[in-house]
Amino acid sequence: MREQLLLFCNWSTLGVCAALKLPQISAVLAARSARGISLPSLLLELAGFLVFLRYQCYYEYPLLTYLEYPILIAQDVLLLLCVFHFNGNVRGAVPYLGAFVASWFVLPLQKWTIDLAMNLSTFISAASKFAQLQYLWKTGDSGAVSALTWSLASYTCAILVRFVIMLALNLWVTATVLRYRTAAVKAE
User: Fold this and answer.
1) Which pTM was predicted?
2) How far apart are CA 156 and CA 67, in angstroms?
3) Would you say 132 and 41 are in contact if contact means Cβ atoms under 8 Å apart?
4) Residue 186, pLDDT score
5) Left, alpha or beta for 36 (phi > 0: left; psi -120 to 50: alpha)?
6) Are 70 and 53 contacting, i.e. CB atoms less than 8 angstroms apart?
7) Which of 77, 113, 146, 155: disulfide with 24, CB 3.0–4.6 Å?
8) Distance, CA of 163 to CA of 3 (rounded, Å)
9) Distance of alpha carbon 167 from alpha carbon 187, whole angstroms
10) Mean pLDDT for all residues in the chain
């Protein structure tokens, strides 16, 4: 039963990721506008995905552990081009795309750079969400932002929530053990 659940989680996450940005791309194309989409958010998200993919390739992890990332990167690049197109400056994407391509080759030059980048990738990804939130709060307009895309992204993260909860509970138990251990030592 556990293996079947794990297979379901893996394949459903891959399936969701395969279509994750399609509702957002469709919304932008239908609106013929990128209103509401934060460019810094999109760039940070793309950077986080790129770092994670490069790290997985560098350390030769099995393809199934990161297969969704090339798909997500391709969708984000397409969305980035749409954003620049509807903002009237497709050529404005070129420096960003060049930086992403260059980073693919620069990151693995030293082991410590790829490791550091991977350690920072969670913060980069979190920053992308905060950048989108900040943009929405500032403008008060969600424009062409797709709620379905963000809901699908939530699903891919929900699977990890169990691990975060278990981590927090295990740390809580550890802290409690240490607290009572020092209390017992003082009592003696």
Assistant:
1) 0.81
2) 14
3) yes
4) 62
5) left
6) yes
7) 146
8) 17
9) 30
10) 86
Please provide residue 59's backbone torsions phi and psi, each rounded to the nearest 5 degrees.
Answer: -90, 10
How far, in Å, CA of 126 to CA of 119, rounded? 12
146: region left, alpha or beta (phi > 0 left; psi from -120 to 50 alpha):
beta
Q: What is the rounded end-to-end Cα distance, in angstroms, of the chain? A: 48
Please report the DSSP string for the chain in residue order: -HHHHHHHHHHHHHHHHHHTTHHHHHHHHHHT--TT--HHHHHHHHHHHHHHHHHHHHTT--GGGTTHHHHHHHHHHHHHHHHHHHTT-GGGHHHHHHHHHHHHHHGGGSHHHHHHHHHHHHHHHHHHHHHHHHHHHHH---TT--HHHHHHHHHHHHHHHHHHHHHHHHHHHHHHHHHHHHHHHHH-
Length of the chain: 188
pLDDT digits (tens, 9 = 90+) for 33-80: 998 899 999 999 999 999 999 999 999 998 888 888 999 999 999 999
